[in-house]
Amino acid sequence: xxxxxxxxxxxxxxxxVAHPVRLRMxxxxxxxxxxxxxxxxxxxxxPAAASDHLGRLRDRGILSQDRRxxxxxxxxxxxxxxxxxxxxxxxxxxxxxxxxxxxxx
Length: 105
Fold this sequence. Notes:
By secondary structure, the protein is an alpha+beta fold.
């Protein structure tokens, strides 16, 4: 059983990823690294919005960045993200064997 401190840390982590754009970014980054511009295009958001989302994930320690020339590449730095992406894909992806995609049904 997790102690209360661990539960609070888990809550902060889950709140950090609890946004459709951030979840899409994590799903993309689980397969490799991307620049802000690439993620903005793939997530269909403005680069400034993508940068804000990435900053939130980076500040939480979920992502790291690597500057190469004019570009900054983001990658996942928290191993727990693999489990989150796997859970999301298996429970809500096209292969999920669920009559409804909503939680609790």
